[in-house]
Amino acid sequence: PNQRSKKKMTNDTTTINPLLLGIKQTYGQTLLTKIQTSTRILLVGAGGIGCELLKNLALCGFTQIEIIDLDTIDVSNLNRQFLFRSHHVGMSKCSVASQVSLNMLPSGGKQGRYEAHLGNVLDTTRFTVPYIKSFDLVLNALDNIPARRRVNRLCLAAGTPLVEAGTTGYLGQVTVIDKASNVECYECKAKPTQKVYPICTIRSTPSQPVHTIVWAKELWKLLFGSKVEDSMLFEDDDIGKEEEEENKEEEKTEDAKEEDNEEEKEKSTYMEQVTSLRTLLSTKTNDSKEQIHKATTTILHALYGLEIQKQINMDRYKSSKTLPTPITLEQIETSVKENGVAPSKQKTFVSTNVWSMEENIQEFISCVVDAYTLLQKHSDDESTTSPLVPEFDKDDDLSMRFVTCASNLRSIVFDIQPIQSYYGAKGIAGNIIPAIATTNAIVAGLQVLQVFHILKRQMELEETKGKEDKDKEKEDCKGGVAQDCRYIYCLRDKTRKGYYLQPTTLPEPNPECFVCRNATISLSLNTKEWTMEQLLHRLLKKELGFESPTILIGDDIIHEEGEGADEETYKPNLKKVLVDLPCGGIKDATIVRVEDFTQDMEVDLCVQHKEEWKVEEGEEEKEEIEKFVIGGEKPLARKDDDTSKEKEEKEGDDDDDDDGIEVVESPSKTSKSAEKDDNNEEDDDDDDIEIVEAPSKEVASGEANANNNEEEDDDGFVIVEAPSKEVA
Q: DSSP string of 365-400?
């Protein structure tokens, strides 16, 4: 009997590729035929998760796929995004990924058409609601919130199911967004609260590698930025001189004299050297390089020696477990004499190597000399307001070399471990969360399983349309994909039952979500101070994510954007204060309608005028443009239930502290510095710079392993690449 069954199975499967046999036996021939012939899929993102998805989709027989990605292949992608090889460096990810994955089809690519679109999904002229409607479903493999928010809104407007996913190291999640199924959208959930690091932590009491890297990025700005005062490390020795002259003839109290003495102690140890170096960088003489070499040595001593010793003398670290160790001038000079070749310029350089103190000093000097060389290539008539060298960019070799060595020297001074390699520093400085290739593979596999559920449900709904049982059709439509699909968490630590994957039912929409529920938004601000331009850019575009908003008071348009809009007619309104706008203006209790047809969104803003804002103890007075409240609290979303909270806390605990850091400047006046211990956990100082940790729960870093075989040659099958435009 076993032999007869085996023979029968062999005969039944001779006409189907073994890779597709599982799909046929699980979901049936009808679904398999739909996959191979008519299902159209849009994939947004061709990075780590995107590569895994394309591989899965191709092996499952999907023949009609379009891919959107704006990025090009970098050398650093090769060991994680397995569809790419060294000869692909510099080429567009979507083009290469489509070509390679097409050959993975069971047919060898003969029956497939994978189309690449080199562009930004935020481009409202190319990727619109009608375009999204042409697909059966959309898969997200993105690594940033604005793009994911845009795709979420497009899919809601088009009524196209979206399979959303993200990974953070060992953690990940997959969910399905479908407006017809009455499930939550991407913007229904509040994003994790940002973690704030005060300025005094960065400037005086660092305790983590991320603190020193942020400090090094500010040093780059101080030495090479267009305005030296833009850096948090800037110190003005002239502060207080005018006041001193005005009070020159007045009798000073003992307290005032003590304050003056304190100001003398606080005099900058490095600003004079910084000014001299910036002058040298802009000067071209025969011995400029030699002068820059000497000036850089002096700055190194000032930053890592004199400044640290000054802080020690002021008892800044009296509560710390260990005192920082200043780098002496002798150590710097010895390091320069022993070996003048920077580690990054040696033939043995590897980006994962950790440099010694001597090597970091050599690299620092080499970077400044290279910056001078770069500056000499600039045209003589270049504006003086331009930066001395390009602004910091994690993909710029010079700026990353500088940040690596500058941060490492500071870590050595404060005994902060681990010292970072070039590769490690790039991950922190560029807000890149290191990805685990297997997590990407697991998440991509879960996405494709959700695809099968969606297609199966779509087939069932199509079958009911031809029947007379309208009640059954209505009931099926009401349930939609929510009956079959799940929100799945990929965990680092197994559950009590031993599972690493935890599925839950898809949550219902947040009734207060203005994106999928069209809820009215409550907005409090000072209508006598805010201008139309501020409302447009700071709130509607930046905070709420509108692309091309049209603003109405009643039935009258006061601002219009988008295709066919008469923007010039409404341009004079931009500079007007809200209360002075036409049609009665925007004042207390005014209902403002905001429409964005590029996303098929209509939202009502219920404006409340508010002039007085409570300033909590320890906080700085904000600029007027930062004084607003949306929906009572920001962001507009419900808090997760206890189960979701527990999961978020678990994920947050697993995430490294060194990930996702950016610098945010908030308007303020002067700030006080407090003595802090090594942990730097609590700081109530009034600081004028915040270091915030970017949301990490649903950020897809998109990295994959490079273990597959070399791609086969294209067997003459067409790959259609959409014409690319200049993208943001």
A: HHHHHHHHHHHHTS-TT--TTS-SSPPP-TT-HHHH
